[in-house]
Amino acid sequence: MAGSCGGSCGTAEAQQAAAAQQELAIKKSLGKIKNKILVMSGKGGVGKSTVSVNLALGLAKQGYQVGLMDVDIHGPDVVRMLDLKGTIEPPATEGGLVPPLKYSDNLKVVSLEYMMRDRDEAIIWRGPLKIQAIRQFVSDMDWGELDYLVIDAPPGTGDEPLSVAQTIPNVKAVVVTTPQQVALADVRKSINFCKTVKVEIAGVIENMSGFVCPHCNETVDIFKSGGGEQLARDLELPFLGRIPMDPKVVMAGDDGKPYLSSDADSPAITAFGKVVKSVELRLPPVAEPVPLQMASTATSSCACSGGSCSSGSN
Ligand SMILES: Nc1ncnc2c1ncn2[C@@H]1O[C@H](COP(=O)(O)OP(=O)(O)OP(=O)(O)O)[C@@H](O)[C@H]1O
């Protein structure tokens, strides 16, 4: 029997049914993912994408099945950092689900750059569209069984981290900061955000902590270091490790050859390896991993102190 709504209630019902169907698809997809990690920070440029990419890669190198989801809608970088641009055409759907981009046998990637024909296109989206895109990244993607899903969020506490918190109820946050006071002040906001939306904090990472001398590979404290660790201690949060500033990290990101994929010896590689281990210990997957070879650790014969290195070439 037709109601007095002129047909609009049918539309509302259809919308409700679609939302319920999506909710089911989200639950089904999340049910196959053991650990969900939201990499966030209060401040831009502190290295969230770098940490996300290398964390995902490090866990994949350990033999885990890993997904990497870039929800930085306005500045998606992950595809560039992994040099997946050649595979950017949206793939055909399989049984209604879209397969993520495949970086390796055990690392899958989804990014908004997927959907952008022109990679320099600026994205102007309001909150509801962003929320829907993030929900679809879970409901419509064929992630399959994963040990870890690493989610790279934009800086701050806006729509994207909020949508992730609402869509993925048991997501855990990894908060990235740099040692300087300005970044630390912002990171407190992220921590408060997590408390407000009831997202457990898996830990804090201090990035750009000291500088790796390009000549001798020794780490020099040209800026401050230890601020992130102190903050974690003050707030009684787990500290997951420090990563020094290393020019090779920038080159690796720009070249689409992520840092942890290189075999080079450096304190930053060692530091990334330790962060991966801390995450693995704090958020263990149930299944036993099959360890693959990790990059070896660094030992330097140069006693560079305070930037007085004289051992290397220029
Ligand atoms: N440990 C490091 N050593 C040297 N450079 C680094 C390090 N971590 C990140 N960077 C560089 O800093 C820049 C910003 O890093 P990244 O894009 O990962 O930050 P972000 O927090 O994701 O930025 P945004 O706020 O724009 O999303 C990049 O050029 C990256 O290569």
Automatic annotation (TrEMBL):
GO cellular component, one term: cytosol
InterPro entries on file: Mrp-like_CS, Mrp/NBP35_ATP-bd, P-loop_NTPase, YlxH/NBP35
Binding-site positions, ATP: 42-49
Statement: the UniProt record of this protein carries the keyword Iron-sulfur: yes
Transmembrane segments: none
GO molecular function: ATP binding; ATP hydrolysis activity; ATP-dependent FeS chaperone activity; iron-sulfur cluster binding; metal ion binding
GO-annotated biological processes: iron-sulfur cluster assembly
Gene3D superfamilies: P-loop containing nucleotide triphosphate hydrolases (3.40.50.300)
Coiled-coil annotated residue ranges, if any: none
Listed Pfam families: ParA
Keywords: ATP-binding, Hydrolase, Iron, Iron-sulfur, Metal-binding, Nucleotide-binding
The protein's assembly and partners: Homodimer.
PANTHER family xrefs: CYTOSOLIC FE-S CLUSTER ASSEMBLY FACTOR NUBP2, NUCLEOTIDE-BINDING PROTEIN NBP35 YEAST -RELATED
Function of the protein: Binds and transfers iron-sulfur (Fe-S) clusters to target apoproteins. Can hydrolyze ATP.
Family: Belongs to the Mrp/NBP35 ATP-binding proteins family.
Protein name listed in UniProt: Iron-sulfur cluster carrier protein
Organism of this sequence: Desulforhopalus singaporensis
